Each structure stands twice: as structure tokens, then as C-alpha cells.
Amino acid sequence: MRRPRLVKAVAAVVGAGFLFPLAYLVYGTLTSVKSPWDIIAGPETLGPLGRSLTIAVTSGLGAAVVGTALAWLVARTDLPGRNVWRLAAALPLVIPSFVGAAALRAAFGPGALIEFIPRPQGFIGAWIALVALSYPYVYLPAVARFAAIPRSLEEAARLLGDSPRRVFWRVTLPQARGAIAAGTMLVVLYALSDFGAVSLMRYDTLTRAIFSSRLFSPSIAITLGLVLAVVALLAAGSERVLLQDSVAAGAVQPSSLLPLGRWRPWATGAVAAVAGVSLLTPIFVFAVWWLRGPLSGRQDLSTLWESVTELAEPAAGSAVAGSVAALAAVAVTLPVAYAAVRAPGPIISRIPTVVSSVFALPGLVVALALVFFAVRAPDLLFALYQTFPLLVLAYVLHFGAQSMRATAAAIETVNTSISEAAGTLGASPWRRFMTVELPLMRPGLLAGGGLVLLSVLKELPATLLLSPIGFETLATRIWNAAEDGFLAKVGGASLALIALSGLLTWLLVLRPGALRSQLED
Amino acid sequence: MRTLVSIVAMLVLLVACGSGEGTLTVYSGRSEELIGPLLDRFTAETGIEVEVRYGSSADLALVIDQEADRSPADVFISQSPGAVGFLAERDRLEPVDPSVLDMVDPQFHNTDGLWVGLSGRARVLVYNTELVDPAELPSSIFDLTDARYEGKVALAPANGSFQDFVTAMRELEGDDATLGWLEAMADNNSPEYANNSAIVEAVGRGEVPMGLVNHYYNFRAMAEDPSLASQNYYFPPGDVGGLVVVTAAGVVAGTDQADLARQFLEYMLSEPAQTFLTEETFEYPLAIGAQPREGLPPLADVGSLTYDFDRLGGGLERTKELIDASGLEGP
Question: Which of A320, A434, A488, B79 is most deeply packed, by most CB within 10 A?
């Protein structure tokens, strides 16, 4: 199998770029005033480290179950209202964890909106919040994969006498294993990096230790950052060993929908319960915060309209930043994924691990790493400091793991024999890639771009520290208002963020996929 | 294609906006809600353009430190003395013009003149009026370790304002007394929250009867929802529980806009700006002669004013050690 060397070279360059945050952490740790070993072996590291690992693994498992079940129900069964669920199930990903967790805490418990459910907190609270807000990392790639499994496979199994349940476990699920594993790893890394949910739920993880020591003891913060990065490298590296996939794909056909029969009400109830916790509860709480002033007559109703119009500019900022970063991330990580899947080698196969590890770092660490290198760059490069291109670079570094994993899962589904057949007919590698492989990968690429888009929409630290001065997004608006407890503004801007992400996800991710399958019918 | 056009448009816009002669760049740890309108007024009155980067005080201080002599920032506004203190210790601030320092009482600026206070925030005990009889309220913060307050007083040990307060307690009462108080609060099962807002919300809905917070959070919560059953209790004068913590501003070392920076700080301490701060944000004005808004007890009647804020900037690490050692979960 001969592949253009260019792809490998590009993959290596991209991989080197993703080493910047790690290099910053290593440099900071080596030059810190305190001995790194004292910090790492201390009780203030080991306790939080154990809790970080616990929340990461359990959140990954929870999100894998929820995301896979939702994806299968939406893509392969006659679940009522599945076209609405298809979009709605992706949206919790856009809710920043600090407002999502605050909304859950405001919704449940004594004195809250729903009194009979205890207020979520501690490990359980952090786990519920993280699973509820991050399961779309599994759902989005899985739903794309389930929709692309050739009908012929399942039909063959059924003709051979397998029950529908057996078909699911033996045929359908293994076909989506790559997508599910890729998504689960994203959840694990996301849970490692999260600060908002764990701090509000008061679960003391490594990220909390990093944040609380960053100002008065920077050497502790940077050493703990390196510990987190090493954990992420190990986690992402272990997956490479675990994953050996063989999957089939053909032209997308209208999938046959499995009738749920008597399970229909149960399935609907389960989907509604997930949506209830992860999307409807936050939306309800945001609406209460936003509307309670005007509706109780204390504020003029016209202030509501004002609060909507003043969100137009940050919404535009969010849309531009999210779409540009999604495109850039897919473009930059496609060669990495392609080289790793099609031309694995001792170095090439490790690049995805490096790319993935950056996603487990808190956004603040990624942003500070870029400041560190930008300030040491020659004038010509420093001119890019705090400009839009540098901000996009920060997004790509932080979230590239998402597009890379979705892309790699998509590449694995493309049967090389189709491309090789095209090769024997005289098509050049580039032409084969553009006309045969790329169209087959498209659902996976869209899903990967969608994940980056949703992540950028809620991103805070890099946006605050590295954006062109005066650049605003809905997420920075929410943060600004939340900092000082202006809940009405938090509510309004959060609703706008959910609406915007719904619109963008439908326009850029779901609709193109749907159009394409209609064209092929 | 449309995306491409917007990128190009944005790049053109960026080049066009490149900072001109009369532009001041401010890194603000105070959020836009609390200071944005004031900056607009400053520009309207002086013609000086202000570009602001908002972020958390700690993150912005870290960035300024890392940017070193290449920092685009001319002025840094901090929510707490901790972040300006961090920069002062690392020689990242230039002395503020003496004419500006003289606008506040000497206790509200750095002794070396590296930063000046803009507004004050009093520490209070917020309580739920349906759950707490005013007669049960403590006469000193040291009473809160009493068994009758067990499990009733919410704390935010990971929050900057709580840490500033603990540092102040160390300076005023000594490390031993401070550690003793922290340990007793931990033993008393004081519930811990992420921040001030979370405590005020929890007290308002009756989840916990009382909590130690900054005074203005309850005013803001009441402005949004006056039916809340929460109210501020100010510790008697002289008690460290009623510490007044300043928000402060400093001039970033190496600025090429020193004169604009001076005008800016002068404006922030002028009568209209100080009135705006207290009316809109419920904080205490610090300029000599400025009056706090209706509803705020006079600054002289609130807690401890004799404290030297300079020390709040340094020594945070020791504060963290004490909080860690006390058994409170946090910082």
C-alpha cells in the first residue's frame, strides 16, 4: 500500500504543534522553585489525582452507555419523534459546565424548583453533571456510525436466524465500536480537564488544585498540570492498544428501522429522562432566571427585548469562532488521522496520543502555553498575539482531539478495497481520496467538526485571554454575568447559546448529512 | 465561502483597530457588568479610547506576568488585593502618580504606591430571616465556632475573597489563632461552597441558614428577586469578620501610556465614577468625601478598617497551608 509521503510529513508537523502545551508544562516544572517530586508525592496531589481518575473513568462509562443507547434508538429504531431527538440529543454539549452544574443545583433539592430530589453534590453531583453534559461526545459519532452501517449486514444476520437482540450485540454494536470508543475517550479526557462542574459540586480533583494554587503557588499549579498531562497521555495511549477494529461500510442506504413494539413507551421514557436532566432542566432554570424579574412586574417587559438584542454581537462572534475553528480543526487533524490509520509507524501512531492529551488539559493551561511561546517569538510572529488566527490556533490545539478521533473512526469504516479498485482503474491517490474515500468519510468528518464547533461555543479561558481585544462570544457574556451573580443575564445568554448551537448543528452538521442521504435514495 | 469572507473582514477590522496614540489598554478582573458603562463614560468625557480585556483577576495577573515587558496592558484592574499584590511582588507594576494616591485614605493604597484602591467590599454574615432569629447572630466571627452554629455557617474556602479574609485574620490575630478558628470551623461541619454567589443562593432558598460572603452579593440577589429571605449582618466595628477588602488598580510596568493611565485612575476615583460604583454595584466608594449608596451602613461602622492591605497581597501561600491544615476542603 503506497501512500503519499506528504501526508505523513504533514501529520508529523501537526503532531509537533500539539507538543507546545506539553513543552510549556515540562519547562515550567523543571524551572519551578519547588522540587517537583515533593509536590507530586505530596498528599495534596495524590488525593486529587485519585479523584480525577475516578471521575474520568466513571463519567466515560456513564456517557458511553447513555450516548450509545440514544444514538441507536435515534438512528435504528422507530422511536417516536426521533427527528427532534436527533438534534436535541447533541445540544447539552454546548452548555458550559459551570452554568450547567449551577442549573442542576438550582433545580433540585430543598427550597429549589423540584424539592423531592436531593440537591446534587460531591462525586455523584459531579458525575451526573459531567455525564449529562458530555455524553454527546459519544452520541454524535455513534449516531453517524449507526446510520452508515449497511443494511445488508443486519439483514444477513437476520436471515441466518439471529433474533433482533442478537443482531444488535453481534452485528450492530461491534460495527460502531470504533466510534463509541473514540467518543468515550473524549469524555474521559473532558472529565479530566473540567473545572466548572467539579468545583460547583465540590469534588476536589486535580483541576481544582491547579486553579486554587495558580496565583499564590504557580510552581505547584504547573507541576500538577504536568501530572494531568501525563495521565492524559497514558489514557490516550492505552486506547491504541485496546482498539483493533474491522468494520464495514457501503453507500449509505436508508436504514431499516427496528420496530420497538412494546418497548416503545419504555424507550421513549428513557430518552425523555436523559433529555430532562441534561437539556430541559438547564433550559427551565435559565428561563426562570431570565424571566422572573419581568414576569413578576418588577422590571419592564421591554428590558427582555433589550436583553435579546444586546446578544446579537456576541452570538455572531460565537458563530464565526466556532465555524472557523471547526473547519480548521478538521483540516489540520485529517492528515494525522489518515496517516495513523492507513500508514501506521512507530512515530505516526503516537501522534494521535499527543493530540488527544492536550484535550485533557484545562483551557487555562493551553492558553498560558500559547502566551508563553508567543511572548518569546520574534516580532513578526508576536504580531499575531491576541489576534483571531492565534485564537483559532488555541481552539484547534485544545479541541483537535475531537475532530481527529471522529475522523479516524470514519477512515476506519472506509474499506480500502474500494479505493484500491479505483487505483487499478488508474485513479491517482489524490483523486481516489477526493472521489472515493472523502465522500464515504463525510458523516464522520461532519460529526468531528460538529464536536469542535460545540466545544468552541462554550470555551472560556482562551477566548478571554487570547481573543482580539473587545471580541465577545455568548460564553464570555455568560461568564461575565455569572462572575458577579447577575443570574437574569446568565439565563438569557445561556438560552441564546443553546438556540444558536441548535441552529448551527442543524445547518452545518445534521442537514448536510440528511441532504446527502436523500440525494442517494 | 461566507465564512472565508467573514474571516477576511475580521482580519481587516483587526488591522484597522490597531491601537492608536490615544488608546489605553486595560486588563480588567472586574467584569463588564460592573465597569463597562464607566469606561464608556470615561471615553465620552476625555476622548481617550479604552480597549478592555475581561477575565478573572488571577488569570489576567498570570498573563501580565508572562507577557513581561511585551504586555499590551497599560492598566490592570483587580477584584482583590491578591492579584495586584502578586504583580507588585514580581515588579510588574509602576508606581501610581502621587496625586492619584492622595485621592484615597492612605490605608487604601499600597505603601510603595504600586496600586490604589477603587472600591471596598465588606465581609458579612448573610442569613436567612426565616431560619435565624436576629438574637442568635454572633457578636464576633470567633463565636461561629460555637456548637450552636454547627453545620449552619457556609464557607467558600477556595474563593479569593475568603482567602483575603483569612490572610487579614492572620495579620491581625496571628497564625495560631487563625488556624484554631479554621480548625474549629471545620470541626463544626461548616458546609463549603464554590463561591459567594452559591452561598447567597443557598441561604436565600434555605439550604443553609448563614454564610460568610462579601456584602454586595445579597444586594444584587435582592435586586433580581426581592422575595428572597436573605439579609446581611455586619460584624461590629473592630471585628476581623467585617474586614473591608479593596478592589484595586495598578499601572503595568513598561507602559508607554503613563499619562493616559494617570488620567484613567484619576477618573475612576472622581465623584461621578465613585457614585456609579456604589449605585450600580452596591460597593463602598473609597475616594475621600464620596458617600456610600442608600442602604449601606457607613464605612466607619463596618468591621475592621485599621488593617494594612499591603500584607494581603503577599503571604497567600501560607494562608493556603493553614486552610489545608485545618481540614477545610479547600483552596
Answer: B79
Residues of A in contact with B319 (CB under 8 A): 216
Q: Which of B34, B67, B206 sits opposite A484 (nearest CB)?
A: B34
In a mutagenesis test of the B interface, which of A289, A380, A483 is the best target, namely the one with the most B β-carbons within 10 Å? A483
Distances (CA, A) of B201 to A111, A128, A463, B282, B283: 10, 21, 28, 17, 19
Check residue A203 and give its pLDDT: 86
Q: Which residue in chain B has the smallest CA separation from A367?
A: B63
For residue B246, the Cα-to-chain-centroid distance in whole angstroms is 6
3-class secondary-structure state, position B123: strand
Cell of A270: 428513557
| Min Cα–Cα distance to chain A from B158, Å | 6
Express each pLDDT in A112-171 by its tens digit. Answer: 677 778 878 889 999 999 999 999 999 988 888 888 777 777 778 878 888 877 888 888
With vertex at residue A362, the alpha carbon angle to CA A101 and CA A234, rounded to the nearest 5 degrees, is 110
Q: Are B314 and B170 in contact (CB under 8 A)?
A: no
- Average pLDDT in chain A: 86
Distance from CA of B2 to the nearest CA of A (A): 10
Decide if A379 touches B, using CB distance below 8 A: no
Q: Alpha-carbon distance A448 to A444, whole Å? A: 6
User: pTM for the full model?
Assistant: 0.87
Residues of A (8-27) whose Cβ lies below 8 Å from B: none
Nearest CA in chain A to B221: A485
- ipTM of predicted complex: 0.87
Task: For chain A, say whether B103 makes contact (Cβ under 8 Å).
Answer: no
Tell if the CB–CB gap between B220 and A488 is shorter than 8 Å: no
* C-alpha distance from residue B54 to each of A314, A465, A483, B7 (Å): 14, 8, 11, 23
Inter-residue contact B279 to B292 (CB < 8 Å): no
Q: Would you call A212 and B58 a contact, using CB atoms and an 8 Å cutoff?
A: no
Q: Do B3 and A320 touch (CB under 8 A)?
A: yes
* Cβ neighbours for B114, distance < 8 A, ≥ 6 positions apart: B84, B88, B93, B94, B95, B96, B250
Residue A324 belongs to what H/E stretch?
Answer: helix A312-342
Q: Which residue of A has its CA nearest to B25?
A: A469
- Rounded-to-integer distance, Cα B45 and Cα B47, Å: 6
A327/B contact by beta carbon, under 8 A: yes
Q: Does B312 touch chain A if contact means CB atoms closer than 8 Å?
A: no
- pLDDT band per the 50, 70, 90 thresholds, residue A447: confident
Which of B75 and A76 is assigned the larger pLDDT? Answer: B75
- What are the CA-CA distances from residue A471 to residues A316, A323, B304 (Å)? 10, 16, 40
Using DSSP's 3-state secondary structure scheme, residue A373 falls into helix
Tell me which DSSP letter residue A170 carries: I
Count how many residues are written for chain B: 331
**Residue position matching grid coordinates 485545618:** B326
Give the SS3 label for residue A114.
strand
Mean pLDDT, range B149-160, rounded to an integer: 88
Residue in this structure with the C-alpha cell 435579546, named with its chain if needed:
A308
DSSP per-residue letters across A179-242:
HHHHHHHHHHHHHHH--HHHHHTT---HHHHHHHHTTT-HHHHHHHHHHHHHHHHHHHHHHHHH
Output the nine-digit C-alpha cell for B60.
489576567
A residues 235-274 closer than 8 Å to B (CB): none
Best A121, A215, A295, A323 residue to mutate vs chain B (most B CBs within 10 Å)? A215
How large is the greatest C-alpha to C-alpha distance in chain A, in angstroms? 75
Output A78-84 pairs: Cβ under 8 A, ≥24 positions apart. A78/A257, A78/A258, A78/A259, A78/A260, A78/A264, A79/A260, A79/A264, A79/A267, A79/A268, A79/A271, A80/A264, A80/A268, A81/A268
Answer whether B10 sits within 8 Å of A388, measured CB to CB: yes
